[in-house]
């Protein structure tokens, strides 16, 4: 039976890499998939991995109708054996409903990949709808790590290396940005709650207030 599967995890845990691996494995067996993405770091109409892999995709902007697009594609004699939707957290709930309809009415497997929560630890609307509708939710087993070495469970937005907790839910950025740019960092729950990024932790370690005092 076809399924709607949601592969979730923090940033830097290999979601897009797995999406590209699924595409490779299935295409190697003669299957043809349709790849969709939204606001990928490599630009519009691209699905990219931090390992350097990239492929073309259909950009699913605001108002894009997955079901109508696939029906039109199939009606014109096109082929589609499965669907991959990357950056699914950015999709609207009604677009997730359309993906579920693709599974139920068109009988195609849909593999969606996305972050579950935003920089405030709040569910993205698209991810919330996927959790509600998916036949399976798979948490990726490749663990991203916090700067302290613990398993990273939260995504933090940073400006100048400092964690921020206000602003628009969707601001495109990436890990390893320069300190003058909006960036993101994955943290464990403890350090996300304390708003302690790797930069602020280094600053604290260098502070004279926390250095050992030499004996007179």
From TrEMBL:
It is an enzyme of class 2 (transferase). ATP binds at residues 9-16, 86-89. Its main location: cytoplasm. Pfam families: TK. The active site is at 87 (proton acceptor). Belongs to the thymidine kinase family. This is Thymidine kinase. It comes from Streptomyces violascens. The gene is tdk.
């Amino acid at each position: 039976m076809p399924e709607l599967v949601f592969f979730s995890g923090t940033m830097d845990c290999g979601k897009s890499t797995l999406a590209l691996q699924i595409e490779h494995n299935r295409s190697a067996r003669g299957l043809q998939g349709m790849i969709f993405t939204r606001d990928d770091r490599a630009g519009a109409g691209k699905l990219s991995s931090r390992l350097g892999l990239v492929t073309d995709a259909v950009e699913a902007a605001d108002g894009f109708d997955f079901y109508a697009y696939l029906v039109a594609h199939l009606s014109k004699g096109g082929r589609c054996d499965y669907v991959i939707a990357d950056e699914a957290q950015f999709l609207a709930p009604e677009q997730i409903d359309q993906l579920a309809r693709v599974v139920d009415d068109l009988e195609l497997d849909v593999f969606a990949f996305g972050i579950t929560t935003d920089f405030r630890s709040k569910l993205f609307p698209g991810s919330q709808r996927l959790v509600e509708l998916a036949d399976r939710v798979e948490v990726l087993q490749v663990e991203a790590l916090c700067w302290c070495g613990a398993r990273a469970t939260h995504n933090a937005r940073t400006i100048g290396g400092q964690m921020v907790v206000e602003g628009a839910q969707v601001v495109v950025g990436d890990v390893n940005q320069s300190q003058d740019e909006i960036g993101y960092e994955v943290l464990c729950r403890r350090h996300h709650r304390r708003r302690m990024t790797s930069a602020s932790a280094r600053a604290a370690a260098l502070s004279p207030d926390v250095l050992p005092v030499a004996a007179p």
